[in-house]
Amino acid sequence: MKILIVDDDKTTRKLLGLYLKGKGYGTVTAENGLDAMEKLSAGDINLIVTDMNMPYMDGIELTRTLRSDAASKNIPIIMVTTEADDDERKKALEAGVDDYLVKPTNADQISDSIKAILKKFFSGGDGNV
Amino acid sequence: MADEMDEIITEFVTEAEETLEKIDPRFVELETKGYDKDILNEIFRGMHTLKGAAGFLGFQPIVDIAHRAESIMKRVRDAEIGLSRDLIDVILKSVDNLRLLIFHIKLKDGIEEDTLPLLKELDAAMGLASAPGTREKTNEKEEAGAGIASEEEEEPELGIGKAVAPQPEPEPQPKSKPDPHPPSAIEEQVQQISKEKEVVSNLRVDVTRIDKVMDLAGEIVLARNRIINLAAKLDMSYSDDPHVESLLETTGFLDRVTSDLQLAVMKMRMQPIQKVFGKFPRMVRDMARNLGKDIDLEMFGEDTEVDKTVIENIGDPLVHIIRNSIDHAIEFSEEREKKGKPGKGRIILSAYQKGTQIVIEVSDDGKGIDVDAVKRKAISKGLITEEEALKMSDDSAINLIFLPGFSTKDVSTELSGRGVGMDVVKTNVGKLNGYVEVITKRDTGSTFKISLPLTLAILNAMMVRVGKEVYALPQTMIEETLRVKRNDIKDVTGQKVLTIRGRIIPMFEMAEVLSVARKSDLRVDYSYVLVALVGDRRFCIAVDELLGQEEIVIKTINGIESEECGILGATITGDGRVVLIIDLAVLARNIFAVSNK
Q1: Helices (H), B156-307
Q2: Domains of chain A, CATH where assigned
Q3: Which CATH class is domain B458-596?
Q4: Alpha-carbon distance B137 to B347, whole Å?
Q5: Any idea where the domains of chain B sit in the sequence?
Q6: Does domain B295-370+408-453 bear CATH number 3.30.565.10?
Q7: Neighbouring-strand partners of residue A102
Q8: Shortest CA distance to B70 belongs to which of A125, A40, A66, A104?
Q9: CA-CA distances (angstroms) from residue B552 to B210, B390, B431, B474, B561?
Q10: Could A11 and B52 be called an inter-chain contact, meaning their C-beta atoms sit closer than 8 Å?
Q11: Alpha-carbon distances, residue B150 vs A52, A54, B140, B143, B203 (angstroms)
C-alpha cells in the first residue's frame, strides 16, 4: 500500500511521511501538483494525501486533472488544507476529493480518514491491490 | 508504534528548532531594515509550518502561540498593521516561548508552561493593531474561539507561482519602496526551486557514523605513512627492481588519495558558523535594549565552515566576548557623541579561513581596554605585584584579563555577570587547540581574534625523544625550540631557569616530569629545549632530542582522561611506533602546582 503525500511544506511532508510509514504504509512525496503528476506516472500509488495551496499546480487542479484521466480516475484523494471556508470545501469536493480535512489536523485524523477510505475502496482493506 | 512516534517527535523537534533558529535573527534585520516583505514572509512561513506540524502531533499550546504570531505577521506583511518595536518584542517572546515548549517536548519532561499570559499579550497586540482593517474583525472571533487556523491562508506560495494559482494576488502595499516584484517574479521562482532542491539533496546522518568514518580514515592515514616508509626503505635496498618502482608509484598515488579522503571526511563534519552566529543579532539587540544602548551588529563570513566540535564549543566564548563589548566597551550614545563617534555603537563579528586556520574576530568601536586600569585591578586582586606591573608591557597587561579571577568591574553586571570571567574564553578556545589575541586602542575599540585549527583530528606536533621514548607535543603551544649550553642553565633556589633574550624562564626536565628513565648523559654539552606558552605561563622543557615536526592523527585512548594524566591521546608514526601525545596544558598545571609548593 503506497501513499503519495503532496505538500509544499518540507516539514509536513517529512512528519506525515514518517507517521504513515509507522502505520505500515509505503510513502512517496511530492512538492506540488506537477511534481505529484510526475511521481504518479512512475506508478503503484494507491492513495493521495494532498495540500490545497501549492505553487505551480494546486490541490484542486491536481484533483481535476487526475479525475479527467481514465487511468487515475479512481485513485482516492484526501485533501488536507488550512481552508475552512465552505466555498473551498465545495470546490474541492466538486473537483472530486474523497475527504476534506481542515488543518491543523492531527495525525490520527489523517490516519482514520485513510483507513476509512481504503476500506471503502478495497472492501476489507487488505492492501492487496 | 511507540518507537515511530518517538522518531516523529524527534524529527518535529529538530525541524521546529531549525525553523526558530532561522527566523530568530530575521527579526533584528526587520527592525533595522523596516518593512521588508521577504523577511516578513519568511517569519510568517516559519510560524505557519510550526503550527501545522505541531497541530499534526497534537501539541496544542504550540499551535495556539504559533497561530497568533502567524496572524500578526501576516497582517504586518500585508501592511494592514504597522511594525513597531513592541510588536516585535511580543513576537520574539513568542519565539522564546515556543522554544521552551519544544524543549519540554524534547526532554519529554511533561512540564506544561502557562502560556495564557503570552496568548493574552498576543491577542492584545492583535486587538490594538486591528483598528484599520474591517475583515479582520470577523476573523478575530474565529481565532479566539478555536485558536486554530481559519482565515484565508493562501500564503504557502507567497508570491511564487502566483501566475498559475487560481486566487488573485491580494497585492499588499509596501509602505516605502516602490514594488520591485513583477520583473523579478520568475527569477524568484527559479531561486526558490533551486533552494528547495538543495534541501532535498541533503542527508541527515548520525554523527557517530561520520566519526567512525573519520576514525577509519585516520587509520588509513597511519597505514599509508607506514607503507610510504617501508617503500622508501625497499627503494634503498632494491632500487634496481622494477617492482619497487611501481610500488613507489602506487604509494605516491595512495598518498594523494588518502589525503583527499581525509579532507573529504573532515569536510563532512564541517558546518557553516552561521549556526553559532545566528543567535547573536537577537542577543545583541536584547542586551543593548536592556542597557539603553544603541548598537549595531554586523556579521561577515557566516558561511565559513568549521568543525562540528568548534560549532559546539565556540558559542560560549563568543557570547562572553560580545557581552563584554556591549556591557563594558561600547559607550552610551551621548558619551560617544562627545567623543566625536557616531551615536550608534558597532560590533563586527567575522569569520574567515586563513591557511589551515579559522579566524573568528569580534571587533567593537567602544572605548578600548584601559591598560592602567587592568594593571591596577590585577594588583588589587593580587594577581601581579606593583613591581611586575611597572615592568609589564601593554600587550602582556591586556592579557591579564584572561587570568582566572579577573574582572574589570567589581560588581559584575547582571548581563556579563555570574562570576565567569574572560579566563573561560581562553580555556575554551585552548580546548579547541586555538588561541586568543586582543588588539585594543583607547577610545577606538578592541578586537578579539580567535584562531582555531581547521580540524581537531589532525595535529601539528613536535616529535621529541626522552630516553628511549618518543613523544608528540602540540605545536600550537610551542613558541620556539633551542639548543642551549648546559652551562647556561642556572639554578635559582632549587629551580632550574634559563635566560632567553633577557627573560628568565623556569625550566623543567621532561624526563623528570614524566618519570622516564634515561642514562645520565652529562658528557653532552648541549641540551635541547622547547619554550612552551600555555595561557600566560611560559616555561622551558628540556628533552634529549628534537625529531622534527609532523602532522599526526590523534587517536583517543579508551579509559584515559587527558585532564587527569596529561596524555591527549596517541598516534602511530610512519615507522609504526605508537607515540603518546602530551597535553601541555595539563602538564603545565601539574608542574606549576608542584613547584609553587
Answers
A1: 181-200, 207-237, 242-268, 274-277, 280-291
A2: 2-122 (3.40.50.2300)
A3: mainly beta
A4: 43
A5: 2-173, 207-269, 295-370+408-453, 458-596
A6: yes
A7: A81
A8: A104
A9: 20, 42, 17, 10, 19
A10: yes
A11: 14, 17, 10, 7, 35
- CA A36 to chain B, closest CA, distance in angstroms equals 15
Which residue in B has a C-alpha nearest to residue A104's C-alpha? B55
For residues B428 and B316, give the distance between their C-alpha atoms in angstroms, rounded to a whole number.
Answer: 8
Cβ atoms of B294 and B333 closer than 8 Å: yes
B261 phi/psi in degrees, rounded to 5: -60, -45
Per-residue pLDDT 10s for chain B (597 aa) are 566 677 788 888 888 888 888 888 888 788 777 788 888 888 888 888 888 888 888 888 888 888 888 888 888 888 888 777 788 888 888 888 888 888 888 887 777 778 888 888 888 887 765 444 433 333 443 444 444 443 444 344 333 333 444 444 444 444 444 444 444 555 555 555 555 544 456 777 888 888 888 888 888 888 888 888 888 888 888 888 888 889 999 999 998 898 888 888 888 888 889 889 988 888 898 888 888 898 999 999 988 888 888 888 898 889 889 988 898 889 999 999 998 889 899 999 999 988 777 899 999 999 888 888 888 888 887 878 888 888 887 877 888 888 777 765 444 444 444 445 677 788 788 778 788 888 888 888 999 999 888 777 777 789 999 888 899 998 878 888 998 888 888 888 888 888 888 888 999 888 888 888 776 655 677 889 999 887 667 899 999 889 888 878 887 787 776 667 788 888 888 777 889 999 887 788 777 766 554
Judged by DSSP in three states, B468 sits in coil
Burial of residue B284, with CB atoms counted within 10 A of its CB: 0-12 exposed, 13-18 middle, 19 or more buried? buried
Q: Within an 8 Å CB–CB cutoff, is residue A88 touching chain B? A: no
**Cis peptide before B180, with omega less than 30 degrees from 0?**
no
ipTM of the complex: 0.71
Mutate to test the interface with B, among A5, A9, A10, A11 (most CBs of B within 10 A): A11
Task: Give helix B85-107 / helix B116-129 axis angle, nearest 10°.
Answer: 150
Helix, strand, coil: what percent of chain B each, to 5?
50, 20, 30
Q: Does residue B41 belong to the interface with chain A, where contact is any CB pair within 8 Å?
A: no
Q: Provide DSSP, B177-213.
A: S---HHHHHHHHHHHHHHHHHHHHT-----HHHHHHH
Q: Which CATH class name applies to B2-173?
A: mainly alpha
CA angle (B294 as vertex; B288, B299 as ends), nearest 5: 80
Grid cell 602540540 is found at B474
Q: What is the CATH T-level fold of the domain B207-269, as seen in this structure? A: Helix Hairpins (1.10.287)
The model's pTM is 0.52
Q: What residues of chain A lie within 8 A of the CB of B164, using their CB? A: 55-57
